[in-house]
Amino acid sequence: MLRRLLLLLVFLAPTHAFAQYELTVEPYVFETGDGRTVDAELGRFRVPENRSIEGGRMIELAFVRFPTTNPNPGPPIVYLAGGPGGSGSGTARGSRFDLFQSLRSVADVIAFDQRGTGLSAQLPDCPHRLTPPLAAEDSRATWTQAAIETIQACAAHWDSLGVDLSAYTTQESADDLNALREVLNADQIALWAISYGTHLGLSAIRRHPDAIARAVLAGVEGPDHTLKLPSHQQTLLERIAAIDAERSPESTFLADIALVLDRLREAPHSVDVPTESGSVRLLIGAFDVQALTAGMLGSPDLSLYLPGMFAQMRDGEFGSVAHWMLRFKSDSSIGAMSAAMDAASGASPERLARIAWEADRTLLGDAINFPANVMAEALGVPDLGDGFRSPILSDVPVLFISGTLDGRTAPENADEVRAGFSRHAHLLLEGAGHSDPLFLSTPLILDRMQTFLSGAMVDSETIAVALPERTP
Question: Containing H/E element for 149?
Answer without folding.
Answer: helix 139-160
